[in-house]
Amino acid sequence: MTDRVVAVLGQGVVDPAAALVDPADLGVIRGDAVFETIRLADGRLDAEEAHLKRLVRSAEMLDLPAPDAAACGALLASAGAAWGDRGEASVRLVYTRGDGTTPTCFVVVEPIPEHIYGQRRDGLRVVTLDRGLPADAGNGRPWLLVGAKTTSYAVNMAAVRVAKSRSADDAIFVSTGGEVLEGPTATVVWARDGVLHTPPVEVGILAGTTVQTVWRNAAAHGLGTAYTRASVHDLHAADGVWLVSSVRGAVTVVAIDGIGRGDSGVTAKVQSAAGL
Ligand code: PLP
Questions:
Q1: How far is Cα 162 from Cα 84, in angstroms, rounded to an integer?
Q2: Helix pair angle (48-61, 69-83), 10° resolution
Q3: Mean pLDDT for each 10-residue chunk of the chain (276 residues)?
Q4: Running DSSP on this structure, what letter comes out for residue 231?
Q5: Which atom of ligand 1 has the smallest separation from the CA of 156?
Q6: Which has the closest alpha carbon to 260: 233, 244, 236, 239?
Q7: Which end of the chain is more exposed for a tag (fewer CB within 10 A), N or C?
């Protein structure tokens, strides 16, 4: 059985085998919910405040009642305590519209998937996929929910499956204009001449928490930082490219669209700046 802790708002930690999802929950049937995935290590949740802030912002974009950040924090703490000393874990906090009258919140703690350890060690291959939207698609179109972290990830998961069908591990979305956007579950970071770059959120991507951590710690590792709009050509020309996200940390991209990349020698610094 999967090693798992489940905690539900108003109930606390529950038996994971008995935890039921309401079949009428709009998060389940329509993906009408928001979530955060947080890394738990050494009994601490990485960047908890930034994750809770983004949850509140995502909920606002979906016109959900504001989640009670203190109650969510307490739920996270009880789930983390129940996980105890089982080691590094992935913590998923979901805030869903429920049946349409009462939103609810639950937390699931699980071990880090095995393939993540492999990617941290060996890197990963990506393909670039056209997201089918211009970089400014979100401007004046709040219904696109650009920048909200919703559970409507079927498109993102389809992109990963397409990547796998093309002998890669993951994808990088580009706009219809060919601008680098983000991975299905990660922010794109690249290095050029000692400066780390990432696209600005204005291109229509999620504001990542991990990239913020890397940016905060970059100077201590002798690296500059910049928000830069880029093409896939810029990624090929970079000294190093990484996918960064909360649970995986910073993972080296070793090939883009079948074209291999050398080791930049910067990966250890980027991983350390990401807190791994
Ligand atoms: N972009 C997308 C689409 C994501 O789903 C994620 C994380 O899941 C990220 C970026 C990276 O965000 P974070 O660093 O907060 O995990």
A1: 37
A2: 130
A3: 87 88 91 98 94 97 94 94 95 96 95 95 97 95 96 97 98 98 98 97 97 97 98 97 97 98 88 92
A4: B
A5: 3
A6: 236
A7: N
Q: How far does the centroid of ligand 1 lie from the alpha carbon of residue 270, in Å?
A: 16
Cα 95 to Cα 6: distance, rounded to the nearest angstrom: 14
- Distant-in-sequence, close-in-space partners of 138: CB < 8 Å, separation ≥ 6: 144, 146, 147, 204
Cα 43 from Cα 201, distance rounded (Å): 31
194 neighbors 226 (Cβ within 8 angstroms): no
Cα 185 to ligand 1 centre (Å): 5
CA nearest to 179, candidates 162, 153, 195, 197: 197
Can you tell me which atom of ligand 1 is nearest the CA of 205? 1
Please give the structure tokens belonging to residue 86.
């089982």
Nearest atom in ligand 1 to the alpha carbon of residue 54 is 15
Show the ligand 1 pocket: residues with CB < 6 angstroms. 37, 182, 185-187, 206, 208-210, 245-246
User: Are 217 and 246 a contacting pair, CB within 8 Å?
Assistant: no
Q: How many CB atoms lie within 10 A of CB 147?
A: 16
pTM for the whole structure: 0.96
